[in-house]
Amino acid sequence: xxxxxxxxxxxxxxxxxxxxxxxxxxxxxxxxxxxxxxxxxxxxxxxxxxxxxxxxxxxxxxxxxxxxxxxxxxxxxxxxxxxxxxxxxxxxxxxxxxxxxxxxxxxxxxxxxxxxxxxxxxxxxxxxxxxxxxxxxxxxxxxxxxxxxxxxxxxxxxxxxxxxxxxxxxxxxxxxxxxxxxxxxxxxxxxxxxxxxxxxxxxxxxxxxxxxxxxxx
Length: 217
Description:
4-stranded antiparallel β-sheet
């Protein structure tokens, strides 16, 4: 017996394919939305975590800045205390400087030189006086330069010819001078005294080792 299908099977197959296509399309859309939601949530989690890290870093930076300010304040206070301590030590060490100054000036004055004025400003001392001749002034400068551990760098300010009347008939020519010299601090003198005398020992070594050889005729 021959069966003949008179139903519109092509339209039914086309309808089934369309329904399958639409179902697949809806499924793909749902999967895409799900993936997009997961990605969005992951990025939101990362952004939130990074914001938390940034906030933590900002808080730590502010704390470190406060500590840096405290350290700068402490450093300035330490520097101020050191300056005060140094000033006190200098005053304590230099309390005998006037005595050393007068002693050294009296020791280094050659014969024929008289000091009429002595003035000290900080470490600079100005001597004003009268000498019998210019050579006496030169000798005074040499003594101040090389003869005293307390006085250094003498400098002749001026020298002017003058005269002194010893009696109505005895008038002598003299040299009026002004000399500037630097006064060392006690700490500088102590440092010079405690420094190792390596140069002097090196200079004296060849002399000690050398022997006078007999001269043959």
